[in-house]
Amino acid sequence: MASAAPRVLFYVQHLLGIGHLKRAALICRALARAGLDTTLLSGGMPLSGLDVGGARLRQLPPLRAADLSFSVLLDETGRPIDEAWRARRRDLLLAAFRELRPEALVVEMYPFGRRQMRFELIPLLEAARGARPRPLVVSSLRDILSKAPVPKRAAWIKAQVEAFFDVVLVHADPRFVTLEASFPEAADFADALVYTGYVAEGEAVAAPRGADSERRGVVVSAGGGAVGTALIETALAARPLSALREAPWTLLTGPNLPAGQLDALVRQCPENVTLSRAHHRFHELLSGTRLSISQGGYNTVADLLRTGPRAVIVPVAAEGEAEQTMRARLLEAAGVAVMLEEQALTPQALSDAMDLALAAERGPRDFDVDLGGAAASAAWIARALAERRREGGRRP
After folding, report:
1. How far is CA 95 from CA 11, 92, 367, in A?
2. β pairing state of 63-65 and 73-75
3. For 81-94, what is each residue's pLDDT tens digit?
4. pTM for this one?
5. How far is residue 300's CA from residue 222's CA, in Å, rounded to a whole number?
6. Do residues 135 and 171 lie in contact, with contact meaning Cβ atoms separated by under 8 Å?
7. With contact defined as beta carbons under 8 Å apart, do 292 and 311 qualify?
8. Span(s) in the chain for CATH 3.40.50.2000
């Protein structure tokens, strides 16, 4: 009798934007394609239309951050969570772990981020460490941390990795950036790091290799978070100054933008400009686009590198956030994008940046970077679990 497919439990908590959730969903789709019985356990606000492929999606009682400081967490009704709420959610998470008995537990971002979730993640990781047989425990991490940790925090992260995790899958191409660029202390546990390549939606698209003249229009995307209204408003004001003023423009806001603000922006849109919530097939939209104006989030940059329009990036830098700025500067240094700092964002500056991007010799389509991170992550986990089974069971 054939043995059952190995079970994988993938925990993700998105707090403001939707990038963490969408990246987790891409990896879970790949895990399911690799023949693993995969459950995505989401703790953030539900996202309509999320595609998890052959995996299953379970929703914990959702919470979100009040703002970019991430200091206040709110439940689905908008009230700050309390200790009773934390205890209920911790118990539900542990119950899911006991029910599913996964052979692999994947935790997104922690311990490099999501310290706010220690109330449930440390009990979960302790339960995994004490289980017999013990599951493979994986940290799923993007390329760049939001902020460089202070020494005390860095030491705590290192201790958490050593105490609980078998491997850290870094979803990056080390030819472009390594984890040490934003977290130098990662060198202390380099043997635990596995670089998977970037996690990107879709397959490589042939069309972007064509001439720029075959592409049409401008896409302005403000990410999936509650910030980005200023970018949309500035783009509208920059359009009459742009060489692409007659081209069709598509403006995309995040799902967290309040309906009133969305309606106000729609009223500002002139003819040949459309505005809507974020596009579920964003990478397909970009594949025929001449120019992208966006923030510098992981998923958006992966889509740009996959599909290849000329690119202007205005990274989010509020509250000391450095992740998007570092990523945008690396792309600009590689000569494949133009970066405009958030504090310098004006209609004229944005129009000038668009001209630079359109006139550049190279764009994202010319950049050689590994975009196979979802499949590579799934393959690594599948191989590790197969090896454990060949050894006669999971390691203690």
Report:
1. 13, 5, 45
2. antiparallel
3. 999 999 999 999 99
4. 0.92
5. 10
6. no
7. yes
8. 7-199+372-390, 207-366
